[in-house]
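Cross-posting from the modeling subforum.

Setting up a comparison between two proteins and wanted a second pair of eyes on the formatting. Protein 1 (sequence, then structure tokens):
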Amino acid sequence: MNRTVEWVRQHQVRAFFLLTFGITWASWILGFVLFPEDELLQAPFVKVGIFAPALVSILISSVVNRELGKVSVLTRWVIFGTIWLVAWLHLVLYANVVSDLTVNPKLIVVGGIITTLPAFVISSAFSRNEGIRSHLASIIRPGGNPVWNLFAILIIPVTMALGAAISLALGDSLPAPDHSIQDPVRLQTLGMIVLVFLNELVQAGGLPEEPGWRGFALPRLQTRFSPLAASIILGLVWALWHGPLLIGMLQEAGPCRMVLRILMIGITFTWLYNRTRGSLLAVVLLHASWNTALAFLPRTDAFLFLMAGLLIVLVVADRMWEKLSTDSAALYRATEGAA
């Protein structure tokens, strides 16, 4: 056991990738095998797989730094209970309004099980373990200029909307998004957008994934590689991890566009993470905004060109092909072992 722990401390990124892939793919396969005809009963297994990056990052952080601090256990449980209840109510409402599922005891019970995951991740920011608390601190205390959080929320939908406008002006037809926006000022439409965004923030994209990919793996990769190289490495691993979940998008977009999208958003994540001095909240918001925009706005070639142009500016302006200085707050600070 001690040899395994020591290996994890010495090879944190490799351990993170191996455990994350193993838990995710095993959970997804198990859910589909056990309940092939029941998506609701598959959901807990799917969610465990989606939350694997955050859960594994918390586990390894606890192994790397076992020092215990003086934190109220009651505080953590109060936060856990509050987040669990709010997330539970949201999930049931989301399932009814967005997924058109009937509210019944089965949905309520499954929803209550699933929402223990975001409650655990957020409340872990108040863990007694110093490694876990340090790892998740920037979710609840991001620091820095709050304008970056607004940038994280708006950059993707604004760019996608501008790309759609350019496509229309050029006479191109727009691909249909997952959810149609008939009238963006109607309360019903705004309510659905909010429900989807909150789902992507807490249940499906931002919180489940970013503590692992950008909060754990990225700062460690950047101790060895430049931000640009680290983005490409992590982007390719991130795409592979999604596996079967990307098959539908792959068929719709084609492999070249799919890889291009993933690499572009990966570089954007890295740039924002470094600009905010390692804010997990900023990349969680960006991830939720990205997924929500993909659900409501058309994916056009003009959007890809606009994003490519923006990223060229960001890469050049911040010289992302150069390694970060050793005093950068976006780099991993080893307490024990190596990355």
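Protein 2 (same layout):
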Amino acid sequence: MPFSYDPEFGAAIAPFAAALSAEQAAAGDWARLREIADAGLALLAAGIPDVPGVERTDIELPGYQGAKVAARLYRKIGSDPGSALLYIHGGGMVAGSMELYDKAAARYVAESGVPMLSVDYRLAPEHPHPVPVEDCFAALLWLHDLAADFGVDRARIGVMGDSAGGGLAAGTAILARHRALPLALQILIYPMLDDRNVVPDPELVPFALWSYDANLTGWVSLLGDQRGRDDVPPSAAPARETDFAGLAPAYVEVGELDIFRDEDVRYARRLSGAGVSAELHVHPGVPHGFDAAGAGTSVGIRSRADRIRVIQSL
């Protein structure tokens, strides 16, 4: 049978279908893609209720090559779990921000009790690779260095991200292994991993909320003319990794109708093949961003519960 949306998700997204199909940026037009993506993220953020009981502390930390990078530490009032996560927002490498993901991060903290440091890494194309992933690694290093000040055990620090943030989380985990910085867990939510994934799959095109043109734009913005070449480093495109031994255990989640499906499944399998624990979920009938667009559906609720469970496992 041909692919189709999960019925609940299809009903949830129906009111937005016309707008989603109309709002497309031409391949290579990163400025328009940023405008569309940020507007969509702002709309989704507006739908998240305010999150009480979470304390926010704004921080300025040293990013790549000493540049100042904004970050925000979230802690649930009265909670003292001893673990922590670095949270990396999505946006296709060219869009998104700490502010647009503020309530999303706060909600994870409120529901899990685990504190998070959200990093406002610098975006491509103004800041191409390695700036975004190095900013994220710098935030992870900051969290390690000051862990004791926040009552956090350095052996219980993980990294989490969705979409581009998931790809940057995987890249940060690769850097952490290379630089001998302990990392307990990587939570990769429909991560953007492979710069070579730009040839449309006709079975997925009708459902792609993140399109192949957008994917090409994001990767070219990050890598320029290097995109697609053999010398792309794994810290930029983690699917290029050839040695998975010693990476942090992973939780990987993706929708069946997401253009990242195959690269994400392959990444989880390669982790497992190297003896790295990897929990993989492929949710039938849903595309990229299904959790935000269909938060109240059965699949949205189920995926949320799994994420909170995994966060609390730290």
